[in-house]
Amino acid sequence: MEQNGLFPKDIQLVRKTVFIVSAVIIFLVVATAIGSYVYIESALKPVDPTDKRPVAISIPIGSTVSDIATTLEKKGIIKSAAVFRYYVKFKNHANFQAGNYKLTKAMTLPQIIDSLKKGKVMEEIKVKITIPEGKNLEDIATIISQKTGYTKEEVMHQLNDRAYIQTLIKKYPMVLSNDVLNKNIRYPLEGYLFPATYSFAEEKPPLSSIIEAMVEKTVEVVGKYEQEMEEKNFTPHRLLTIASLIEAEATEKADRKKIASVFYNRLHIGMPLQTDPTILYALGTHKERVYYEDLKVNSPYNTYIHKGLPPGPIASPGEMSIQAALEPDQTKYLYFLATPEGDVIFTNTLEEHNREKAKYIGKQ
Fold first, then answer.
1. Is 324 exposed, middle or buried (0-12, 13-18, 19+ CB in 10 A)?
2. Verdict on whether the full-model pTM lies above 0.70
3. Distances in Å between the alpha carbon of 209 and those of 146, 198, 200, 355?
4. 161 backbone dihedrals φ, ψ, rounded to 5°
């Protein structure tokens, strides 16, 4: 009997063909998954459990996780640099020590990582560069200059070299993107040099080594919040921009999560952020107080004129501000005011804010 223009034999053939194609697709998917699992499982095991001959490994100061992984793979201590990097990231390992090591092909990844975290520094530290939280790029360039002998102009030239920035974007795609090359952004790496202390064995280390150590630290810190960023649909650029505003407004006594809530509440209702640190950044100066005339500065960073976030970070935020940007308190506050004592007063309405402002400004 004919059905829909097909004879029973034709129907059987179609069904058989569909079954075979489906089976092949399922087989390929399963085979790929099994193959990937077997490859990763194999890469996590020792290269040779019976070979306990020590292999000399040298990890220079300033080495990144990628550098270490490549060295270990070339020396035959691990099977895959890529798996090592992903394992380190997944397990949230950090603080690897520079030094001379004796590792074997019989060691497991946890044993190798444990050795690298306990190693002795192979060279005497000649320079320590400490970047405080909340410093902007020009401040950081000044600190680097004072510690290394480079002029501030040399440091700034390296930090603003577009070709160099492109190489960093390719090297650190997990945090850097073409967002930093937006024409409205003053300095591409603003906010991406993490505030911390960096040690170097040379009195005048290459500027690229200094800069990349700081970017690498940003990768390490921001990477810890990858899942939260994904859940909130945050790019690293957006996260660091908001965190920089929080950092710039925070005092030692400030509750950063409440400050974050004010910014988000304003963004939610389309209210300008009106945060004074963006005015100072637009002016390119440090001042104790922002005056009415300052609020008219023509700049994409002027959050009194332009709604929404500025084009990019205005300083390097610390981890507390990054956390606050991702985990703000749930409040209805729209205003906050820092007192001369460093306390921060939060209010819901402009009337309340002006009342508190008059009270504390009068004390100054």
1. buried
2. no
3. 16, 11, 9, 51
4. -70, 110
pLDDT tens per residue, range 215-235: 999 999 999 999 999 999 999
How many helices (DSSP H) and strands (DSSP E) are in the chain? 14, 6
Q: Say whether 97 sits in a helix, a strand or coil.
A: coil
Confirm if 217 and 140 have CB atoms less than 8 A apart: no
pLDDT band at 248 (very low <50, low <70, confident <90, very high): very high
CA-closest candidate to residue 103, choices 89, 114, 94: 114
Q: Which CATH superfamily is domain 55-118 in?
A: Endolytic murein transglycosylase (3.30.1490.480)
Cα 83 to Cα 77: distance, rounded to the nearest angstrom: 13
Which pairs with CB-CB distance under 8 Å and at least 24 residues apart come from 298-305? 300/184, 301/186, 302/278, 303/272, 303/273, 303/274, 303/275, 303/278, 303/279, 304/272, 304/274, 304/279, 305/272
For 342, the token pair is 């460093």
Q: Which helix (H) or strand (E) holds 64?
A: none
3-state secondary structure of 34: helix
Q: What is the pLDDT of residues 281-340, one digit of tens each?
A: 999 888 878 888 989 899 999 999 999 999 999 999 999 999 999 999 999 999 988 887
Pair 239, 229: CB distance under 8 Å: yes
